[in-house]
Amino acid sequence: MAGPRLKVVPVELAEANRVVALWHRHHKPVQGHRFSLGVVDEGGVLRGVAVVGRPVARNTPPDRVVEVTRCCTDGTRNACSALYAAAARVAQAMGYERIQTFTLDTEGGASLRAAGWTLAGTSPGGQWRHTDGKPRRTDQPVCPKKRWERVLNPRVEWIMPQTHGAPSEGLPLWEERERPR
C-alpha cells in the first residue's frame, strides 16, 4: 500500500524547531543547524522535518561529517525515509564525507535502512560531563543508542593556499588530494 506522494522542501530552522517541539517524542528543539528539510504531501501540508547539524560528539570532525540531530513526522508513510535519503543527498552535494544519526536502542531503524543507511555501532549511553564540568542535560534519553551512517564522498584532504604575499594569477583556491588511509 503506497502512501501519499511526498516532496522534499527546504525549511528554516525556526519552522523545523516548531515541528520538533510539537511532534518529537523525546527531544527538544535544537540550537543550530547546517540545513533543515521538510517533507510535504500533494496538498502542501508539512508532514515531517529533519534537522542536520554539527556532530554532537566533540571528537567527530564537523568539517567532514554532519549529523541528523532531529527527524520527526506526523506518522505519514515513508516520510522518515524520504527525509533521511534527502539529507544524505544534500550533505553529499555539499562535500561531506559522511552523515550520521543516532536512534534509541529500542527503535528498529527501518526508515534508515530503506534510505540506504547502515548500522555502524552502538553507544553505551549514560551520563557525561561538558568540558566545563557542567552535568549533562537530563531531559533527554541517556540510554544506549544505535549509530547509523552513510558514507557520501571519498575522503579528501583540502590544502589551503599560501596566505602571505599577493596571490598569483591562476592559483587554485583549493587543492584536492587523496588522504592516505
Features:
181 residues; alpha+beta; Aminopeptidase; seven-stranded mixed beta sheet; two-stranded antiparallel ribbon; 17% helix; globular
Please give a structural write-up.
17% of the residues lie in helices and 30% in strands. With 181 residues, the chain is of the alpha+beta class. It has a single domain, classed as Aminopeptidase (3-Layer(aba) Sandwich).
Average pLDDT? 83
Strand sequence of the main sheet, in spatial order?
1-2-3-4-5-7-6
CATH superfamily: Gcn5-related N-acetyltransferase (GNAT)
Number of domains: 1
Number of strands: 9
Distance between the termini: 45 Å
List the helices and strands in order: EHEEEHEHEEEE
Structural class by SSE content: alpha+beta
Strand content: 25-35%
Cα Rg: 19 Å
CATH topology: Aminopeptidase
CATH architecture: 3-Layer(aba) Sandwich
Total helical elements: 3
CA-based shape: globular
Please summarize what this structure is.
Helix content is 17%, strand content 30%.
Topology:
Elements: E1 7-10, H1 13-23, E2 35-40, E3 46-53, E4 65-73, H2 79-93, E5 98-104, H3 110-114, E6 118-123, E7 145-151, E8 156-159, E9 175-178
Parallel strand pairs: 4-5
Antiparallel strand pairs: 1-2, 2-3, 3-4, 5-7, 6-7, 8-9
